[in-house]
Amino acid sequence: MPPVRRILHLDMDAFFASVEQLDRPELRGKPVTAGKLRAIGCHRLVDVRAMSDGALRSAVGSYADAIRRFSLGIDDRPVVPDRKAKSCGCEDTYPEDVRDKGHIVAEVIRMAGQCTAWLERKRLLARTVTLKVRYSNFETVTRSATKGDGTRDPEEVAARAVALLERTEAGRRPVRLVGVSVHGLRPEGQTPGSG
Fold first, then answer.
1. What's the confidence (pLDDT) of residue 82?
2. pTM of this prediction?
3. Which residues, 6+ apart, have CB-to-CB distance to 180 below 8 Å?
């Protein structure tokens, strides 16, 4: 399978402001570095990569090295999520159309298992199971079912996902992508509606 190429689009103001706020929280809401860079004609990260070290240092001072690394996609800082998870999902895009319904069902069961393993690790329960199917013409459909107080039982989540698959044309129409996700999360032991 060929390597996956990802293209990221970044808002420079938000990006540089967040970098500055790591060391100087009083700059929150003030894109100081982005303003300095725009003043010298640097509007995109590709522009940062094209600047000489001297010009970059002259414009932004001590942030030059960090900004250069970030513009090259180098960032060794740990990822610290700032909000709790609202869902978990797995999906696969296939290199060729899949027509075999048994194969699609097996994939749905496998993905449901991945979701429930994540729920188990996080000690969460999910009320909603969602299935996503993309056909060969790239038409995408989703089907969801919400039930009870929540579960992370692999058999129950898999059965619900397979039942949702029956409400699609998968197997009758060629499929290019299948996904399963869980939503309506709550910690185990928490009374529904109390969180």
1. 66
2. 0.59
3. 89, 90, 91, 108, 111, 112, 114, 115, 129, 130, 131, 132, 157, 161
